[in-house]
Design a protein that fits this description.
single chain; about 80 residues; mainly alpha; elongated
Length: about 80
């Protein structure tokens, strides 16, 4: 069974997937079985459980993705690391 890459999911689908993991977790399902049923890696399942335990249901909401504003390389510094002979 192929694992699902959560990065390709829309926010709504990702949130529902996380809620699904928690529902199975509360029923006492083991991590390995939970990962297999939800088609996620065990690492992803552990992360979702940790998010839930630290932030509750609101902790399961997806955050912002990608680079933050201002994290890019300033255009003045692009190309300065070139080696010249």
């Amino acid at each position: 069974m192929e694992k699902i890459d959560a990065r390709s999911l829309k926010d709504e689908a990702l949130h529902e997937r996380r809620r699904q993991v928690i529902r199975f977790y509360k029923r006492g399902m083991e991590l390995a079985q939970l990962a297999q049923v939800t088609e996620l890696s065990e690492t992803a399942v552990k992360k979702i459980i940790r998010l839930y335990e630290t932030g509750g249901v609101s902790g399961l909401k997806p955050g912002r993705r990608g680079r933050r504003v201002g994290d890019c390389i300033p255009s003045a510094h692009v190309g300065q690391n070139r080696v010249t002979a």
